[in-house]
User: Fold these one by one.
Assistant:
Number 1:
Amino acid sequence: MLETKNLSHQYNKSQKFNFPDISCQPSETLLVLGSSGVGKTTLLHILAGILKPTEGKVIIDNTTLYSQGSNALDTFRGQNIGLVFQKPHFVQAVSARENLVLAQSMAEQKVDKQRIDQLLSSLNISTRASAKTHTMSQGEQQRLSIARALVNNPKLILADEPTSALDDKNCNEVVELLLKQAETVNAALVIVTHDSRLKNIFSNHIELH
Amino acid sequence: MNLIKLAWRNIIHDPLNLFLNLVLLTLGIGLINFILLLNTQLKDKFEKNLAGVDMVVGAKGSPLQMILSAMYHIDAPTGNISIKEATPFLREKHPLIAQSAPLSLGDNHKGYRIIGTDHTFLKFYDAEINKGKLWNNLYDVTIGDEVAKTLGLKLGSKFKSSHGFTDDEDLQHDHGTLTVVGILKPTGSVIDQLILVSTESVWAVHDHDHEGHDHDEEEHDHDHEGHDHEHDGHDHDHEGYNHDGQDHDHGDHHDHSGHGHDHSAHNHQNDLSRAHLLTHEHKDITSILVRFKNKTNFQALTMPRNINENTDLQAASPAYEINRLYDMMGVGTKALQLLALLIAIVSAISIFVSLLNSLKRRKYELSLLRVMGGKPTKLLTLILLEGLILAVLGFLLGMVVSHFSMSALGGNLQDKYNYQFAAWTTHGKELLLFGGTIALGLLAALLPALMAYKTDIHENLSEG
């Protein structure tokens, strides 16, 4: 499902990141651990098709990510990769539900109301569907951002520090949601974090140095 | 969700900015269109009412004032001229003149000017009778379509004229009740707002007021006055007599067998022939409208100058004077247009700045759209659409404001000058203005849109 080969990225002469090869199958979870400054976000962006690596290949579902044109890459990302960020951001001008609609239309998918309703209710935010996102609590916002990552039934879910701002209770809740939802859509889940609490939950992890 | 909807939601997400942008745009576009509307219609009125008049002859004074009073009926005349002086231009067989019409101004009815003239006047405006007949008898009036409609006058309606050009009850003439005998078809020209009577009717009304029992040398006048005076003394008789007179008229008003006969018949019939008019050498008229047989003829071209240099009369060319008026108005109009353009430019800058500001605020949002699969061209389109929607809204509001202002001003002008202005018509330039507004909105949004196009997702999200 997800495979990388010889990935490295060089921002400038003094700063070069070399990444170990990664592999993650559908419904599997991979934890990428590392303290700040070791290139966690760089790796995540490379995996997400946002940042082209200086060297190496990323293969998702038999597609070599950076060998396609940039427009095709954008659409591929929208349809196949779901991203969850540390701090949830949304399009402020539209409601929670419409943020999910946007995720579908931006990826050039048909708007699937059923899928949206189902996600909203399984993440327990149906009642907040028409609220503007800035009026939602942090927990609600985090759940909505998971919903957004999942709305197009992606093959790969990438989570960037999804728990580091949360207390233990919420941390567990979010991890459980991520695992459950990734499993439902049969997606590979990669969590990039420095949160060592997660180490105990996931057996499959690599560390960046 | 399509981009138009998203752009719209983004715009209304910031109501204060939206308000500021729209106020500026509306003001700029409203002002530009208002000036265009007014200018187009003013020019249209001026040009339509040129009516093929090549020269106006009147008393010495301001030539523009003479043109405005004799052709547009919005200013006071420069003075009067005697029939004797005017005779050369009123003669029917003048070698250079195709047609001419004598005008006697000085009275009004409820603000609508009463013009003493003969039937040649109608030819200048291609006016035709709609109901009733043309004025033939003393105190008969034929009225323009708008006069009839606005004042609710019908065939047979009677009124008394007032002295001067504004509606003033105190200046009402005591003598000479005018009777509507005809209503003209609407022409769209100034004749719609005029009340036409015979030259002698104007004299008759005025002779009474100003001269009392004027023992005029000329029998016809004397006759008329005599009758009128009697009628006024015996009101009931007067009414009855008048009706009688009218009844007879229907039967015999075509039967002109000579003025002497007419007057002796005591039926108020009044000879409108030019030859008859010219017999009143010592009477006054106000001005003469002249159309040349050939206006490029050398003698015709030099005629106004000859008149101005060699006689006590003044001649002026309407086309020339109106162009001079345009030039004078042009300065004011240009200043206003410049101001409007300036406001439009400021509004474009305001749109530009507010889009740029919102872009800074929405940096992360735009990156999100990219992460969700949005192509750079989608972000470009989104921002351009935001500028476009503002422009379209501004244009629509500007149209509403300008047309309402025109409607208000039109009412005002109608009260003052009787000219009707259409507030709810369009002119070709509105389409051009629409194009200009769209271009302005797109131009203001172009740089922000390009910046959105170049959004560096990696960098924005890393700062996140």
Number 2:
Amino acid sequence: MKTTKAAAYPYVLWLILFTAIPMLIVFYYAFTNEAGSFTLMNFKDMADYSIVFFNSFRLAIISTLICLVLGYPMAYAMSKLGRRGRTAAMIMIMVPMWMNFLLRTYAWLTILENNGLLNAFLSAVHMPELHIINTPAAVGIGMVYNYLPFMILPIYNSLEAIDNSLIEAARDMGCSSSQVFTKVVLPLSIPGTVSGIIMVFIPAVSTFVISKILGGGASILIGDLIEMQFLGGTYDANMGAAISLVMMVIITLFTMITNKIDKDNDEGSVLMS
Amino acid sequence: MKKIIYAASCLLLIAAMLICASSCGTKSNDVINVFNWGEYIDSSLIPEFEKETGIHVNYSTAPTCEEMYAKIRNGGVNYDIVVPSDYMVSRMIEEGMLEKIDFDNVPNFKYVDESFRNPEYDPENEYSVPYQWGTVGVVYNKDIVDENESDIGSWDLLWNQKYSKQILMFDNSRDAIGIALKKMGKSYNVTSEDDIRAAAQLLIDEKPLVQAYVQDQIFDKIEGEEAAIAPCYAGDYFLMCEELGEGSEEKLGFFTPEEGSNLYVDAMCIPAGSQNKEGAEKFINFICDPKNMAVNTEYIYYSTAESAARDLLPDGMKHSSVMYPSGNELNQFETFTNLPVNCRRLYDKLWIKIMSA
């Protein structure tokens, strides 16, 4: 026991150096002004940017929902495959993630551009062209594409872990297929679904590269806003830290709420109902 | 026992980091750290400098002026040469972030043309030596933009309804709001809040017509005919024409708007705290050698501030009126100066307003 504890020391050190100390620095900057004295102005000034927060959250929520709607059935279908099928599906999902994130996003630029592959195809089959690039829709597509695996994999893991005898038992007790799903499979897959939602929502709400490349830079998201505090006309590390802090608080709250849903669900679990 | 081993290895780790940090700090005299933009030097020059002087060059790059500034402001980095643009030079001088250059160590400064000495951003010419300069104009696709279009020759072309969604705009507040100010007939450097707000309103009006706000992608999007009209650096236009080959000038037009436009200078400077100022001065002197300056300019496709270097360029470049506007034309250009901090804040705020409009 003692050795296992000691084995964690290097990581604890890492945690202190690269998580705890930077967090303290963010705290310090968020509550001070350029001269270094205490202030709450950073948070008050943030009200000017509420539209940016609103846009970011809306886009992140929409992307997360789309990922859920696309990802859950995919994960479910995967869990029903044989061993080989599962491996093949897993590889298909993982392979794109081995490629650089920026590269994948630029590839979507080539697809969605006005003279891009999609429109070339549409005009070849005499369909009207679509103007997707440089709209929020393009940013949404980029996010769904990039983050979908983070939705599928945890859901798949929780579905795969379901003991088949539970499903058989439900059937023996006279459950219809849809009842088996709603009463057994769905509740047991909630933990995976919750982690999927968290793992998609958090990067989606703080992305900034995707909006820049696919959105034509025409709509600023929170990530862009934070970047601007450091790389814009004014170097305002204090404001940058304050926005980051607010983001962290919001994300923590979000994670707590989703985990709560998860826990509540545990209490009223399958066997009890 | 195990505990001790782990504690010891932790200590070792810290020690290693400290040693590295301190050894990186006390650089010996034969290394300089150069911080420049990407694709902004002919890479053959670095080994040549190393051979000539025996000084090793650590070369790193940043994508924008602001990023370079942030990196130096954040601290923890050590550079001997940086290449900020004009307005950033004056901001860094104001904030005490630059070291005075000892011009006795830079004899090749004599090649720098008179018109580029004592510039507005460094009036006594104590802190900077011009690296490259250029101008901003408008590039347009002649297949799409009507030849008789009356807006050709004016910034108004970027506001022309007819070319809705074919127009690109710069993606940073200073350049974009600057263009709107010029369209209004104002200076790039006005500090009047009303003028700046009016310029921002012009950009909000323009937004429905704009396909995308970009900087480096202007190249791809104009060449690939994704877009037809964009603000553009003169050197980039020249390069685009070269890349598209024969007859490209029939296809791509370029003009300097009559309302006036921007002339920018990127200058070599030595940041405060440089560990090897002498080496840095040698590097500046090396770049200023007309022979090297010509090699560099030919690679970068911007303009040089040394007539002696310009003479060594290939004919097409040397005589290009796009890259070297003549004396009279030069009057329509204005250089950015550093804006007071309240203006910069206003710019950032308005930019967010434009982007979320």
